Amino acid sequence: MKCEGAQALLVFSDGARSMALVVDEIVDIVEDRLDIQVGGDDSGVLGSAIVKGQATEIIDVGHFLPLAFEDWFRSKDQTKPAVRRSLLLVDDSPFFRNMLSPVLQAVGYDVTVAASAAEALAMFKDGREFDVVVTDIEMPEMDGFELAERLRADPATAEVPVIALSSMVSLEAVERGRQVGFHDYVAKFDRQGLIAALKEQTDVGRAA
C-alpha cells in the first residue's frame, strides 16, 4: 500500500501503551473549561460545547481507549487477584449515567444505576448492599447532600463510602460535603480523579 503525505493523529499514551485517533486535520489546540450543553446520541461523542465561539462536538476519549486495550482503565498491578466491588451510581441525567457506567465497569466495578436519591434509598431499604456509592449533587427533589445525610443517619448504611460528583466544585460545597459525610468530592468530568477516589475507598481502605 502506497502512502503519500502525512496523516494527522491524536495520540494518547499511558506508560508503554499508546493509542491514536485518526483525524482530518488539527485546527487548533485550546485549553478551556467545557460546558457541554447537549448530550451526544452517538457512541464516542460526549455532546456539544462552545469552543472559541463555535459549536463543537466533544469526543468521548474514554470510549475509544478500551477499544485499543481492554484493560486501559484497570490497575496495572497484576500481582493481586481482581476483586469486583459493587457500586451504586446515582444521577438524574441519563447522559451521565450512560457515560460513566462503562468506564466504571471497565475498571472493575459491578455498576447499578439509580435515577434519583429516592430510588437509591429504596434499594438500600430493600436490602441491597453496595461497597461504594457515587452520587451527583445537583438532583431534583432530593440532592446528593441530603442523600449522604440519610445514608449516614441509618446504621445499616452509615459506613458505606459516598463519593460526590458535581459540575461545580467550590470550597463551600466541599466543606458542606465533609459535614454531611462525603468521603471524597470529584468534578463530573474528572474520570481519573474519580477512579483514584474509588480505588482509595474500596481497595486501599478495605486492605487496611
Uncertain runs are 77-81, 204-208
Helix segment tally: 6
Calculate the terminal CA-CA distance, rounded to whole Å: 56 Å
Largest sheet: 5 strands, parallel
Helix content: 25-40%
Q: Order of strands across the biggest sheet?
A: 7-6-8-9-10
State mean pLDDT (0 to 100 scale): 77
Supply the CATH class of the largest domain. Alpha Beta
What proportion of the residues form beta strands (DSSP E)? 25-35%
CATH A-level architecture of the largest domain: 3-Layer(aba) Sandwich
Instruction: Give the ordered list of helices and strands.
Output: EEEEEHEHEHEHEHEH
SS class: alpha/beta
Number of domains: 2
CATH superfamily descriptor of the largest domain: Response regulator
DSSP summary, beta strand count: 10
What is the overall shape?
A: globular
Could you tell me the CATH topology label of the largest domain: Rossmann fold
Based on CA atoms alone, the radius of gyration comes out at 19 Å
